[in-house]
Amino acid sequence: MTTRKELSELTLRFQARTLNIYRKLFFDLQEREYSVELRDRAAKLAKAIKDEDYPEAKSQADNITYLFKLCFQANLILPTVYQGLAVDGLTLSATIEEAINGEIGPDPEPEIIPVEKIPEAVRKYIPGGEKQSAPC
Questions:
Q1: How far apart are CA 54 and CA 40, in angstroms?
Q2: Under a CB-based contact definition with an 8 Å cutoff, are residues 72 and 79 in contact?
Q3: What radius of gyration do the chain's Cα atoms show?
Q4: What is the largest CA-CA distance in the chain?
Q5: Using CA atoms in the order 72, 75, 79, 85, what is the torsion angle rounded to 10 degrees?
Q6: Could you tell me the pTM of the whole model?
Q7: Separation between Cα atoms, residue 11 and residue 82, nearest integer Å
Q8: Which whole-number Å values give the CA distances from 120 to 112, 132, 135, 136, in the listed order?
Q9: What is the pLDDT of residues 22-38, one digit of tens each?
């Protein structure tokens, strides 16, 4: 079962790849139609995930994946790049679908490390030093 944190990390990686493609299209290839749409949808996707609006997030992920397909058909991105982006988009979309269906788990509680197990060189940066335990 996927957690909210894992979903956020998956979204962040997909958004980063999307923005990398945007930069290459916009700045290197001077493409102004798909690139701007990719940038805008990547921002909407991140906002929807942050707000836990999963139906909107799924819609944005699907639209971004479709835009990648259009870019591939227009010979703006290589086949191997498109395949990786499509797999990432479909994976994200499926994970968001799990969240829509309520199959997303809570984030795990952080592990508390006793101060004795923290190296001496690191302890000096912990407020209270030897009196506290530090979360990982």
A1: 17
A2: yes
A3: 20
A4: 62
A5: -30
A6: 0.77
A7: 17
A8: 17, 14, 16, 16
A9: 999 999 999 999 999 99
- Domains annotated on the chain, with CATH: 2-105 (1.20.1440.60), 110-136 (no CATH)
Token couple for 55: 């139906």
Helix axes 4-23, 54-73, angle to 10 degrees: 30
Distance CA 122, CA 117 (A): 10
Q: What is the mean pLDDT of the chain?
A: 88
Contacts (Cβ under 8 Å, ≥6 apart) of 56: 44, 48
pLDDT in tens, 93-132: 999 999 999 888 777 777 887 777 878 877 777 776 555 5
